[in-house]
Structures are given as C-alpha cells and as structure tokens.
Amino acid sequence: xxxxxxxxxxxxxxxxxxxxxxxxxxxxxxxxxxxxxxxxxxxxxxxxxxxxxxxxxxxxxxxxxxxxxxxxxxxxxxxxxxxxxxxxxxxxxxxxxxxxxxxxxxxxxxxxxxxxx
Length: 117
Known about the structure:
Layout lengths: L1 E13 L2 E3 L5 E5 H7 L6 E6 L5 E9 L6 E4 L11 E11 H6 L3 E3 L11
C-alpha cells in the first residue's frame, strides 16, 4: 500500500509578486528550491496564512538568491504581495518506507525569504 506524505516544506515565506498575466504556477527562488529538495515542475500545495486559501500548482525556478516567491496566473488571485505562505510538496511511498521517511523542511527569514544560516 502506498500513502502520500510530506516530502518537502518551505515554512513561512512572503509573497513577493502576484502576476495574473502569466500562464500559471509559482516561481520560487532556486536557492530555496534546492534547500527544500523541490524541483522545477513539481506539484506543490500553497497554504496562505493570511487568508486561509489553499491551492495546488507547479513550480518554476526563480533567480537564485532573489528571495522570489511569485504566484502566477489564476493563483495570483489567492494571495497578495506581503502575504505569508507555506509551500508543501508530497510524495507517494510504501507505507513501511513512509514510517521512517524524514521530510526536508526549511524555515527561511520571512522578511527576506533568504535561508537562515
């Protein structure tokens, strides 16, 4: 039996842009993606702490070290610049494997979206 578990989480980053005219997705600073073990085109869930909205989308790689978190396309209506969100990626794995799996969770500085060293 396979179950879905949290694979990666970027806990509390601030939306820096909302681009309604883009096709869709979330753009994430490449440095944050690597630190959280998230890859381009991976499906993620975004949870908005400010308004309770939740949405699923896919990731686009942003400029490294930029702190960029940009909701694109229709997702841009789910958050305002300055809102704080949690970005979660899930994985499907065998039940026994899941019991010992440790997700990669990072806690960036919400003022800058930079990794805390």
